[in-house]
Every structure is written in structure tokens, then in C-alpha cells.
Amino acid sequence: MQFQCFSPLRKSSFDFKLGDQTAERFVGFTVSFIEVNWLFAAYQVRQDDTEQFKIIKWRSSKCRILWHLPSIVLKSWWEYYNGGEVWEARPFRHSLLWMAPFLSGGGYSSEAISYVTGLEAAKMVQKLQIRQHGDLESAVFWRGLPPDTKRTLLSLFHEDIHLSYSVVICHSEPGAWYPPLFQTSPCPPTGYEEPLFTIGRTMFETDRVNPDHVKRCNRMDEIWVPTQFHVEAFTHSGVEATKLVKVVQAVDTDFFNPANVKKLLLPRGQSLFHTKHPEDLKESRNKPFVFLSIFKWEVRKGWDILLRGYLQEFSGGDNVVLYVLTNRYHMTNKEFSSLIDGFVDSLEIPEPEGGWPAVYLVPRHIPQVDLPGLYKLADCFVLPSHGEGWGRPIVEAMAMELPVIVTNWSGMTEYMTDFNSYPLPLDGMTEVLDGPFKGHLWAEPSLAHLRLLMRKVFSNPREAKRRGKVARKDMVTKFSPEVVTRNILKQLMRLQKEIELRERRDDPAL
Predict the structure, then answer these.
(1) What angle do CA 95, 97, 102 make, to 5 degrees?
(2) Domain 92-251, CATH 3.40.50.2000 — does that match?
(3) Domain spanning 258-479 has what CATH number?
(4) Which one of 144, 311, 314, 426 is most buried, by most CB atoms within 10 A?
(5) In the chain, helix, strand, coil percent, each to 5?
(6) Which residue numbers delimit the Glycosyl transferase family domain (predicted)?
(7) How many CB atoms lie within 10 A of CB 328?
């Protein structure tokens, strides 16, 4: 079926093919425009040498048929236009078991929660059960979740499925997969033979995958990774290319929406080396410019590069503050402060005439429900990381219209551009010196460019805000839960067809 669409915004027409679709099927698709939330579009439908027309009004991605063709019957399902391909969003008739660290917090946890809540809202999976897997439970994290999210997760924990009729998704690092290398519930629960189909959802932050993890990936039917960077790195490491599928991560653009959020009060955090709290800067008539960084306390996050760049570029004379939200694990405030003081002394940087610029550690766990307010108080998010699988705090900050300064390598390259962010160049690649990824390579962010970009954002906040607004638009149009859920449903429809083909091969009578 050949379609022609005229866009009143583009003032031009464009053609596309929908493939062989039957005449009785209603074809619905969305043409996305950022500038407006509705448009009228006329479509010319060519079928059996007969030209007929219909006009559809689109508003907020939902359509109202103003005039329809008698020969086209509206079915009980949507067909989505996505990337030049139309697919049928039918209910997934098999059960789906999703195993992930739902109760743990962190990147895998938030990603898995966004996936299953999106699928549950779509009501397109016949049976969806979730199970805790891959990490320890955190009562603090659970208490901080929004009430609606808790209710959804609790209902999915109690869903009943039969494993032999299920697709199993193991959403964790490969060491947790069957048989696990540490104490956790195995995934798949009984190995790889009983489920209909097994999928590993994982990612890495370095240039390669460990050989043992490659073997574990190749035991799965498919491996879902979040970015093209991972497709290439996994393939280069030895994971079978035919098993790799890119499924991006979602960010909740309704929850992380600056229009719906009030700023948190500047938290009176712990001073890292006797700098004054912003509320004590009585000589300043204006709110200080707030840099925010959120990360797990480890070398990979580049906290040393962040502090070095910030301390070298700014002084107490600048109306600026850096807030750091991090997990210090088992260190006390005194131990952590001593560690930072020792690091600053090792830099041998002379203290500026105006004193050190303000640096504060957010002193407590911030509940998930308060995170948007924390982003709202900031003026810029900064993270000179050596590598990220995806970068959850980064996309959350972008959804909150914050300009971000982040290393231009690994998972972040999937969503960062020169228009929606400040990509931080590299000084090259460096070898990981210890830990499970010893011998791998990761990025070495440029300290000189970090200083330059932080000063640029501080000195030109209007331009930074413009990039922040572009960032939010990109998050809404490309990575919102609705968009990502649609992609996952598309993958499930593909799997359903593959499972049906398997069943026919095994039983020709079907």
C-alpha cells in the first residue's frame, strides 16, 4: 500500500510504503512534531487502482477519525508506524518472567522498573511476573519509591506463570545468570532448556566483555543491550552478532518534568574541606551557580577528575558551589572527609586568594520521590566518567532541562549531541589497573576541556539553558516510557512469531 503525506509544517509531501497490508485493516501511525501538538494530515491511499482519501486529526499522539473509508475497518489493535515499518501491536500471548534487582536501587533496578511498569500500563502482555534477582534488597530504596510504582511492582511479584510457557529475561550482569557466580536467585531459574526463550539484558562500561561473560551471553537466545556502542563492543568480544538486539533505556519524562517540580532547599551538606555553605554567603545577593554530580563512589566515575578540574578552575570568589550525591558505602563522615582532604593535599594546588570554591556532600540518602527536586535546584550536571553502561542520572538531568557536561564515550553517545549537551572530549584511552575489568580500556576525560566547559556553562547560562531545553525534547521524543515500551512490544511481537515458527517446526500438525 502506497501512502503520500503532506505536512503543513514542512510545506512538502513525502512518500513511504507500508508493505502488504490487507484492505480491511486500519493503518494508524504517528508523525511526530515538537513545535505543535496537533496537525491535520491528508493521506492518499492507493489500493486496487482506486484513490480514496481520509483525514485524521492527531492530538497528543491519539487520533480522531473525522472521515473514514467504508472499506477500511478499525481492528481491535493499533498498528504503529515506527522507523518506516508498520507492526501489529497485538497482545503477547505467552507469559513473561522478568528477573532483575527490582528492590536494590541502582542502574539495573531503575531500568527494569521502567520497563515492567511501562508494559503493565500498556496491558499488552498476557501474564507478566517479576522476581528479585542479581543484588541485595534495599529497604531504604523501597521506601523512597513513589506509591504507584510500589503498587504496580507488588502486583507483578504476585502474578502466577508457568515457566515452560514463558519468555525469561535475566536483567543483570552475566555473573548472576545460571549458574550464578555469587549468591543470588538463578536466572533462568532452572537453566536454559525449560523456558520458551531466554534473554539476557546487560551492559558494560569498558571496551570489551570478559571471556567468561561472553560464554554466558552466547548461552542465551538473545542479548539485549542499550546502545550501539554495546552492540559493537560485545560483537568484537565474541558474542554472536545474531543474538544482539539494541533496546534503549527509558527515562520517566513525566516524573522528571521541571514544570511539575518544586526545588528542594539547598541541603546543608557536609563541607569537604571547610568551605562555607551557600546559605552563609551573605555577601552574595544572588543564588550561587550550582553544579551537581550524582554517582556511585568508585574510580570509574572520575570523582578525582571532577574535583581537580573544579578546584583548579574556580575559587571562593566565584559565586559557585558543587554538590556531590554519592554512596560512600561504609565510610563515616569523618573518614570520608579525611579521604578528600588527603586527595586535595596530594594535588599540590595552591589555595586561591579567595579560598577554595564551595564543595558539599549531600549528607543523606535522597528518596526517589525527591530526586526531581534535587535536579531542579541545580544549574548544570557534570560527570567526567571513564565509562557508563547508560548513565541514568545523566538522562534524568536532561529530562529536567539541565545542561550536562559528560564524557563523550560509551553508553552516553547514544543520546548526547552537540545540540543537547556539552560532550566532554577525551585525552585518549587508559587501561583499567585493578578490579574485575583489569586490563580493559576505558576513556580518559580531558581535564583541560572539563575546566573549559564548566567555565563556559557558568559564564553563559542562557546558552546552557537552551541546550537543556533541547535535551528534554530529545528525552521526551526518543526515550520516554511510551516510546521505549513501544519498542519492547515490537521486540516481543517479533519473538512471538519466532516462537510460533519453532513450534511449527517441532510439530508440523500445528
Answers:
(1) 145
(2) yes
(3) 3.40.50.2000
(4) 314
(5) 35, 25, 40
(6) 365-420
(7) 13
DSSP string, 4-43: EEEETTTTEEEEEE--S--TTS--------SS-SEEEEEE
**pLDDT tens digits along 3-21:** 444 333 333 334 333 433 3
pLDDT at 276: 57
Residue type, 358: A
295-351 per-position pLDDT tens digit: 988 899 999 999 999 999 999 999 999 999 987 665 666 677 778 778 888 888 888
Q: Which helix (H) or strand (E) holds 380?
A: strand 380-383
Higher-pLDDT residue of 138 and 38 is 138
Count of C-beta atoms within a 10 Å radius of residue 348? 6
Specify the DSSP element, H or E, that contains 449. helix 447-459
pTM for this model (two decimals): 0.80
Residues contacting residue 147 through CB under 8 Å, at least 6 positions apart = none
User: Residue 38, Cα to own-chain centre: how many angstroms?
Assistant: 27
Q: Mean of the pLDDT values across residues 402-407? A: 98
Is there a contact between 24 and 72 (Cβ–Cβ < 8 Å)?
yes
* Whole-angstrom distance, CA of residue 322 vs CA of residue 305: 13
Q: Find the helix packing angle between 461-479 and 392-399, rounded to 10°.
A: 110
Amino acid at 218: N
Contacts 24+ apart (CB under 8 A), 137-140: 137/103, 137/104, 138/103, 138/104, 138/105, 140/105, 140/365
218, 240 contact by CB (below 8 A): yes
Residues 6 or more apart whose CB falls under 8 angstroms from that of 288 comprise: 278, 281, 319, 320, 321, 358
Radius of gyration of the chain measured on its C-alpha atoms: 25
326, 106 in Cβ contact below 8 A? no
Q: How far is CA 384 from CA 231, 248, 299, 308, in A?
A: 23, 22, 11, 11
Q: Which residues of 51-87 are buried (b: 16+ CB within 10 A; e: fewer)?
A: eeebebebeeeebeeeeeeeebeeeeebbbbeeeebb
How would DSSP label each residue in 229-286? Answer: HHHHHHHHHT--GGGEEE-PPP--TTTS-GGG-PPPP----EESSSPPPGGG-TT-SS
Burial grade of 433 (CB within 10 A; 0-12, 13-18, 19 or more): exposed
Cα dist. 187→197, 211, 218, 350 in Å? 12, 19, 15, 53
Among 291, 459, 306, residue whose Cα is nearest residue 374: 291
Region(s) of the chain under CATH 3.40.50.2000: 92-251, 258-479
